[in-house]
Write a structure and sequence with these properties.
This protein is of the alpha+beta class. It has helices at about 20-25, 125-135, 160-190; strands spanning about 15, 35, 45-50, 55-60, 65-75, 85-90, 95, 100, 105. It has 3 helices and 9 strands, in the order E-H-E-E-E-E-E-E-E-E-H-H.
Amino acid sequence: MHYDLPATTDNFSCLSNVGKRRDWFPGGEVVPRWKLVTGGEGEFSGWVYIESVERVVVEYGTGSGPLSQPVALSWAPRYLGGAEMEFKCPECHSPRRRLYLVEDVLACRKCAKLYHRSQGDSVATRRARLAMSLAAELGVRAQPYGDPDPPQPEGMNLFTYNQLLLRYRTAQLDALAALAGDMAAHLESREPASLL
């Protein structure tokens, strides 16, 4: 597939199962009818015809006109009872919580060959982001490695504070190690080739 935009999930409309079970099957009954699905930014907007508990038909507009695509449903049991509705990907038939509208076809992320934005980040960047989010939980901005530990936030249990602090320092070390590994690989690639 060729995309005009980067092939990340946030650049394509998504039909999500969030809140659909109660909306589409109130009280567990099946009443064949049309439902308008209006999504926000990055969300799918179109019509869905609820045929049965096993199948819906999704209609959406594209640059080439309106299209209709049947989508099978599956139901996964929940831990505390009940069932969660999932879409079966029209391409691979696997149960999925989200289907993406890519090149006028609904498909799961794997079939559409999409990736999450963070998957393109380096390991060092992901580790640094984790350290920053843990620092925010501790109520401080991320600090350079070697600075004194941030103070225990008011109202935070000492055990929780120590756990967060350990995770924060580990994330900092992981980010530094990943950065050092990236730097070593970069320096190796810049070494002059042997003349032999």
